[in-house]
Each structure stands twice: as structure tokens, then as C-alpha cells.
Amino acid sequence: MAVAVGQKQADGGNAVKIVPGPVLLLGAPGVGKGTQAKAIMAAWGVPQISTGDILRANVSGGTELGQAAKAIIDRGELVPDALVNEMVADRLTQPDTASGYILDGFPRTLGQAEWLDRHLEASSNRLPVVAVSIKVSYTQLLRRITGRRNCPVCKSIYNIYLQPPKVDEICDLDGTPLARRSDDTEAVFEERMRTYDSLTAPVVEHYRAQGRFEEVDGEQPVDAVTAAVMAAVLRLRGTAV
Ligand code: AP5
Ligand code: MG
Asked: 146 to each of 29, 39, 134, 139, 188, how far by Cα in Å?
């Protein structure tokens, strides 16, 4: 059944399905983009497209792209726009993106944002994106980055200080030993923040200027941030909560 973007679709019972269209999650390293994208994916049934996760999968798989990206990621710099845009274009051809998707960590340069605008304009699904930026203070970000652990199997995200697993260093869901990202050191975090301030902060202004932008406080409990992001998306789509 065709459904208008941002509307709630009755599924025959009492439940309703939200069709959010393309949603961007913006924000500095560690604000909770991945955590929130996973929660929204579970709630709304649309995929998370994380350029960081796709790049890391290429690094672990030893692909040509992964070999080119590894040193760049470990320095806290950005992979060239052309490589990342191509990765996203490829992912957007998958049928699971039809009702919408959560872009996590893309676009993060003005060039990527302008490419995405043109790409969506030219595609059969001409829906504009809506962007939500998550704000967290520098001190809290450092704690989030240095305490982060990930499950290499199910990709769940933990934090040894703030969101600890039930058993130290073990995934609650599948018992796998947790891993630490190679770029989650204080030194690389500082470089990632510099990169964010110089190259990604202008992307926020790009969407703010288009009036398709809201900001949420990311220093609340995870569930409260999820509710705030989802409410912002529905407001931006003109749909009552
Ligand atoms: P990427 O993987 O996108 O890293 P990032 O932007 O630095 O963001 P993070 O993944 O570190 O943080 P997050 O916001 O997802 O936070 P999370 O939910 O994990 O990119 C990595 C690299 O890849 C880049 O540096 C670049 O080199 C390359 N790259 C990627 N995309 C690119 C692009 N488009 N162009 C060019 N290069 C690109 O949460 C963090 C921690 O906080 C976790 O421990 C979590 O448990 C905890 N936490 C989350 N929310 C809360 C909360 N509300 N309360 C308490 N703790 C919380
Ligand atoms: Mg992330």
C-alpha cells in the first residue's frame, strides 16, 4: 500500500507504522548517533545507514576501500567524498530503503550534503531529507568515546561508565567479548573533533538554512533522546505526535 511520508499507517490492528522518509542524524563523535539510529530502526522498521560502520566492515574484510580508509580513520580525518558518496549511492539502491532510512554519520562535508541533495532530487523517490542534530558537551563526549565498547557480532553499543553490560566486557545479547574501536583514543578523538568543527559543522548550517532541521539535547537518558529525536522527525514531516 502506498503511504504518504511521515504518516502513520494502520496495519489492520491497533498498531500504526510510521513512514519517516530519509532522516539524517548529525552530531559530533560520540553524541549517540549509532545508539539512536538503532533505537529508531527498531521502532520504525527502517534501516540504519552508517558510513562509519560500512567503512569499518570494509577494513575488517580487507577490501581495497578498507585498505585505503583504515589509516584515514585512525588519524581521525575524513575519507574522500567521492568514495563515501559512491558507498551511499550503492546502499540506497537496496529495497529496504523504500519507506525511509536513518543516515548516521553522512553527510559530514558540505560536498557530501550537496551531492545528497542532487542524488535525492534525481531519484524516483524525491522526498527531501530532514536533519536532527544531537548536542552533547565536550567533557561528556570524551567519556563516551573512551568508555565505548561494541559487540563485533550483533553490533550492540555499550559504555563501561554509562551503559555497562551485565557482565564486564561481554555482550548481554550473545555473550561475545566486546571490542574497542581503534579510533576511540583521546588523541584521535581530539582530531575527530577538530575535523567535525571545521568540515561537518557547516553541514548543520546547510540544513538549518533549508528549514528542515532540529536540534535535541543528547545529555538525557537514551530513551529520552530517542523520544526527542522521533518527535523532532514527526514535527519536521508535519505529522502530529
Ligand atoms: P563514525 O563511525 O561515524 O564515527 P563518529 O561520527 O566519530 O561517531 P561515533 O560512531 O564515534 O559516535 P556516535 O555518535 O555514533 O555515538 P554512539 O552511539 O556510538 O566515523 C568514524 C570514521 O569513519 C570517521 O572519523 C571518518 O574517518 C570515517 N567516516 C565515516 N563517515 C564518513 C563520511 N561520511 N565521510 C568521510 N569519512 C567518514 O555512542 C557513543 C558512546 O556513548 C557509547 O559508548 C554509548 O553507549 C554512549 N551513549 C550514547 N548515548 C548515550 C546517552 N544518552 N547516555 C549515556 N551514554 C550514551
Ligand atoms: Mg557511530
From this structure: 11, 22, 19, 11, 10
